[in-house]
Amino acid sequence: MPLEWSGLSPEVLLTLDRDSPRPLRAQLEDQLRDAIRGGRLDVGERLPSSRELARRLGLSRGLVQDCYAQLRAEGYLVSRVGAATSVAAGVCPPPAPRTVPEQPPRLLADFRTGVPDLGSFPMADWLWATREAARAMPTAALDYGDPRGSAHLREVIAGYQRRVRAAAADPERTVVCSGYAQGLALTLRALAAAGVRTLAYEDPGAPAMTAAAAAHAGMAAVPVPVDDEGVDVEALAATGARAVLVTPAHQWPTGVVMAARRRLALVEWAAAHDGYVIEDDYDAEFRYDDRDPVGAVQGLAADRVVAIGTVSKSLAPALRIGWLLCPPALTGGVTAAKQLDDRGSPTLDQLALARLLESGRYDRHLRRMRTVYAARREALVAALAVHAPGVRLTGLAAGFHAVAHLPAGADEQAVVDAARARGVGLYGMSANRAGQAPQPARIVLGFGNVGERAIGEGIAAIGDLLARRAG
User: Fold this and answer.
1) I need a labelling partner for 181 at 20 to 30 A (CA). Which of 201, 252, 324, 352 fits?
2) Residue 90 CA neighbour count, 13 Å, CB half
């Protein structure tokens, strides 16, 4: 299918050598033939009008018309009264065969983790915020700006984090980034420049991504075990690391909420070892027990904690907007790394997010999504109670994933494979362990992008697999 270029006269790159003894018309004909034969111009693509092409090349219109007439006679071009001249069929080389990626079979339910309800993205609110931001944006905002990001968005984020997460947020030490991955990379580069050589991370956690990010920054990565109260601070101290990556509000992937005494111990570790805590606050917006709120660790030690936040879980991953609340000692290094990376994140998107936050529409969206995810959470609990009553479910305090504890000795991978054969996507805990140990067997169930009906049907289809004992 030919590309449909809008506009009265699409451009095409042609060059003429006026010092050549070859006539200009012959040069123009040769270049158009070569462009068509070589596939630069595809079947059905329009050429500029003879008047416009003559103007661009500094030729007479009659010369261009004669050229077009010659190529029409040779079968390269076609034209109709009232329509533009275009490339004729049958003269272009056949297109290279396109490899169509094989589509995976449609699943009855896919319990993939880390994905919010994409269908609930507040598109109308986002479009409104974008229009409002564009309407009010000063011309100067279209220039290269502060690599830390829009001053207005940094003020709004800092205020929001102080209000909602009890963070000690300062706009001057807030850096806007393109999501969690860039935020972590910028932080690790700043830490490496400050002399930190080893990064500790939670186990289970995200070993592959964390180790790769650390290696890219020139750092080693070591796992530290997580128990029912969060990361083991004594084990952390024994590693000799001076930085640790944690998910205290809702540990990924166990779902444990870091205990208050463990938080204090973590802050004390950082002070005693000249260390830094990297706090991934990835889904703290979605808590289901307002009687026991959990603030950010950053609020306890702003000089020792880098807090990373994004809208990937609250709105959508595709927005690629996040932020870093930086300690004073690291703000300059993070800002310099951001400047080298991309000179700053897209300004219009930043201003749109600021408008969304200020207007109250962001909070309204979060309230609605808490209700949606709470209903899906209850649907998951109810379905397991009916179809796999012996399977214990943990990690439900926040977010939109939970952990199913399989019976002792169960083969985690066999359960995942058998579920896939029945049209249900399951994901084992072993991939999140530093050594990928298959025991104890656990399944991490994401329900953010799975409807209540699909949850019920999916669990009904595999309940016997989850409850099956080894042997």
Assistant:
1) 352
2) 5
Minimum mean pLDDT range among 47-56, 158-167, 243-252: 47-56
Sheet containing 401-405: which strands, arranged edge to edge?
Answer: 392-394, 401-405, 442-446
Q: Both tokens of residue 168?
A: 């000690």
Q: Which residue has the higher pLDDT, 293 or 136?
A: 136
Taking alpha carbons only, the member of 262, 256, 205 closest to residue 235 is 262
Q: What is the pLDDT of residue 385?
A: 96
Of all residues in the chain, the percent with pLDDT exceeding 90 is: 79
| The Cα angle at residue 294 between residues 288 and 296, in degrees rounded to 5 | 130
Residues 6+ apart with CB under 8 A from 451: 376
Q: Give every CB contact of residue 462 below 8 A, 6+ residues apart in sequence.
A: 387, 415, 418, 419, 422, 424, 426
Position 82: which residue type? Answer: G
Radius of gyration of the chain (CA): 29
- Give the Cα separation of 241 and 220 in Å (integer): 9
Contact 197, 220 (CB under 8 A): yes
DSSP code, position 132: H
Crossing angle, helix 361-387 and helix 347-359, to 10 degrees?
80
**Number of residues assigned to the chain:** 471
Do 205 and 255 form a contact (C-beta atoms < 8 A)?
Answer: no
| DSSP state letters, 1-68 | ------SSS--------TTSSS-HHHHHHHHHHHHHHTTSS-TTPBPPPHHHHHHHHT--HHHHHHHH
Distance CA(360)–CA(352), nearest Å, equals 13
- Partner residues linked to 221 by β-bridges: 199
Distance, in Å, from the CA atom of 471 to the CA atom of 468, rounded to the nearest integer, reads 9
Residue 305 in 3-state DSSP? strand
